[in-house]
Amino acid sequence: MGESVELKDKTALIVGATGGIGGALACALLAEGCVVGACGRVEEKLARLEGEAKAAAGTIELFPADLSTEEEVEALALEVEDRLGRIDVLILAAGAYSAGPISESQSRDLDHLYRINLRLPYLVSRTLLPLLNGEGAQIVFLNSSAGLGARAGVGLYAATKSGLKALADSLRDELNPRGIRVLSVYPGRTATTMQELVHELEGRPYQPELLMQPGDVAGAIVGLLRLPWTAEATDLQIRPMRKPS
Questions:
Q1: What are the structural domains, with CATH classification, of the chain?
Q2: 19 and 94 Cβ atoms separated by less than 8 Å
Q3: Model's pTM, two decimal places?
C-alpha cells in the first residue's frame, strides 16, 4: 500500500466556502493543518469561518467575491497568487438550485443555473490552473446526484450538473498526465440551507436529522484527498443512510 498524502501545510482554496458543505470542508481541511483560502459571497459567514480557524489555531485567508463576471474571476486569481502563492487543492463548491416543470420554465431560469453551476466552475478552474502546484495538485468539483440522472421537475438543474460532470471528466483526462487528480462528488440529500429550500419547493417536511450532515461529506472528500498517489478516486456518490418516513 502506498503512503497516504499528507495535507498538513498544503494550500487549499474553496470557492463556495459559505455553503454548508463548503464551510464543512474549510473546517475539515483546517483540522488537517491546511492553509485554507475561503471564497464566498456572504461576508458574515466568511467571518464565522475566520473565527473557527482562530479557535483551532489554523490559518485561513478570506476572499469575499461574487465571481459573476470573468473580470472578477481574474481579480480573484491575482489576489490568490499574491496572498497564497500556490494552490495544492482547489475545491469548487458553489451552486444554485431551482425546480419546476420544463413546460413552465423560462429561459432566464436556465441561464441563471448555467452561470453558477457550469460557467462559474469552468471560469474558475480554467483561470486558476496556472496556480495549481504542479504534480500532486488536486481539484474537487462538488456536483449533485442530479448530475447522474434527471427526474421530473429538476430538468434544468440536472442539465447544468450533467454538464459539470462532462467538464470534470474532460479536465481529468487533460490533467492526469501532469500528475493532477480531479474528483467529482455527487452528494445525496444533505442538511444544508439549499436542501431546506428543496424540501420547501417539494412541499415536504424538512427533517435534517434524517439527512447526511455537511461534515459527513467533507470527511469523505478529505479521505479521498489523502489517497496514496498510486490511486485516484474519480467519482464519489454518497447518500443518507436513513430515509424519511
A1: 11-189+216-234 (3.40.50.720)
A2: yes
A3: 0.92
